[in-house]
Amino acid sequence: MRTFLREITENKALQIQAIGLSLYEPLPGTSQEQIGKEVVRTQWISPNPGKLLLGKRILIVDEVDDTRKTLGYALTELQKDIEEELLRFPETEREALRSATNRVAKGNTVKSKYLINCADNEKFFADITPEKKYRMFGWTTLGKPFAKMDAQRNNPYDQVCPDFATEAYAEARAAFREANAGVDDAVATVMLTQVWTLTNRAERTLWDAQAREREEREIERARGEELVREREAETRAQEERAAFSEEMKKNKFKYIDIPIRPPPTTPVEIPSRFATAKLQKGQYVELWYFTNAGLRHARTNEATVDEDAIMAVAGRDGRVDLVPATATKEAKAVVPDRQLTWDDFTIAVRCILFTMEAAAWTEQRIAMLANFWGRLQSHPFRSSPDPLDTDALLLYQDEQRRAWHQAITSPAGAWDISVVDEMLLARARDEVYREDRRKKDRERDSLVSGISLLAGRNTY
Fold it and tell me: pLDDT, tens digit, for every residue of 66-109?
């Protein structure tokens, strides 16, 4: 759009300034109650419009003067800008400058108006006064040329070529003969018919192109809607899967798959969930949990305790730890490895190896422990007639396996536990013998003390 007009007489550039006002459009920051009632300024002339307008003859053009709210707002606000600028001048000069400023407004429709009070030097007139109808202007057609709009309303395939030889088209034939010398009425009729046919053919081509565009837009719109539906369905499916996954975590026993098979003929060996959980973490756990007594304890006690229940337990070092409630009940019944019978030891070894495999322990660790326990069972101490030699094997197993688990997470690391160290085994044997000697000494001392007490009573 041009921003100036050239005045013929004095060769001056007359500026064209644009202002933006909104009454019916929903704009950011406006409420529904403001639309149609309150004029919103979207663009103004300049930061200092009064200086630009003062002393000028001003023509304000509104393309449609419907309710006159926007036009009235423009006149009022521009008048305020001019009055603010006049305050910069001495009071004696203001009236002369004010009278030199003239404003004229254009545009009108037949409708009740917002009243505008015009000063003597202000004029308002309507270029046209049409009937009360809304007209479609080019800039409100969303980029569709008028030719396209007309073509959409008038299907060229439905049109029939008129008979240009009739009296109704005599004026058209005459105009054609006048523009083309030497052409008679018959030739004019043929030429007009050909022009109509070519025009109709072009309109049909345009119509077909528009039909294809409409079809493509409809396909694109349908595809977009389908993509939205698919995304919404996928979102719902993800939410449902997440909710179901959370439900399975909270109530996992309800969703464990049960194979279709007959009941077992032998009792199922199910270790304690506490012991199984420790093996899942690769941690040390006492062999007692995998003996017949430990398995029986798990069957009879775990059904009465909620596995999610947590209890506070004071450790040997004085610290308070939070542990599963099932672990606290089992801790009261657990037997240290060194105090197990040899039969319980051999039963527990077989069961714990299966549980380690189910807990996905590495083959290397399982093989080390299997060889460790196997070599203890085949050691010469096992065939010794002295029961203290068997106790020495159990003590060695207890000490070595605990130390091995603790060393795994230490900076130095662990070792091949399957190698039986005879020196360490001899130390364990000495400790067993010393403990047995102390036990026998205590029993003897207790017996002697009892005999002495009995003799003292007989004296009296």
Answer: 777 888 888 888 888 888 888 888 888 888 877 555 555 555 55
Cβ neighbours of residue 70 closer than 8 Å, sequence gap 6 or more: 21, 23, 39, 62
**In the 8-state DSSP scheme, what is residue 127?**
S
Tell me the per-residue pLDDT of 376-424, one tens digit each, with 9 for 90 and over. Answer: 999 999 999 999 999 999 999 999 999 999 999 899 999 999 999 999 9
DSSP state of 39: -
How many whole angstroms from its chain centre is CA 174? 74
CB 425 within 8 A of CB 396: yes
Please state, in angstroms and rounded to a whole number, the distance separating the CA atoms of residues 209 and 23: 37
DSSP 37: T
- Which is nearest to 177 in space by CA: 166, 163, 191? 191
- Contact (CB, 8 A) for 366 and 357: yes
Cα–chain center distance at 33: 34
Helices (H) and strands (E) in the chain, counts: 13, 9
- The residues carrying an active-site annotation are 66
Please, are residues 277 and 323 in contact by the beta-carbon 8 Å criterion? no
Alpha helix stretches (DSSP H) within 32-145: 49-53, 69-86, 91-99
If you write DSSP's letter for every residue of 319-380 in order, what string do you get? -EEEEEHHHHHHHTT---GGGS-HHHHHHHHHHHHHHHHHTT--HHHHHHHHHHHHHHHTSG
Query: Is the Cα dihedral 335, 439, 427, 411 positive or negative?
Result: positive
Residue 45 pLDDT level (bands cut at 50, 70, 90): confident
Give the residues across from 322 on adjacent strands: 312
pLDDT, mean of residues 297-304: 72
Cα angle 294-350-374, degrees, rounded to a multiple of 5: 130
CA atoms within 13 A on the CB side of 114: 16
Beta carbons of 393 and 379 less than 8 angstroms apart: yes
The first and second tokens of residue 162, run together, are: 């008129």
Contact 107, 64 (CB under 8 A): yes
**Residue 312 backbone dihedrals phi, psi, to 5 degrees:** -90, 130
Structural tokens at position 401: 């396996």
Cα–Cα distance measured from residue 26 to residue 30, given in angstroms and rounded to the nearest whole number: 7
Mind giving me the DSSP string for 276-290? HHHHHTT----GGGG
What residues contact residue 183 under an 8 Å CB cut-off, 6+ apart?
176, 177, 191
Residue with tokens 């565009």: 213
Vertex 437, ends 433 and 441: CA angle to 5°?
Answer: 175
How far apart, in whole angstroms, are the C-alpha atoms of residue 375 and residue 267?
29
Residue 301's alpha-carbon distances to 59, 253, 282, in angstroms, are 98, 17, 24
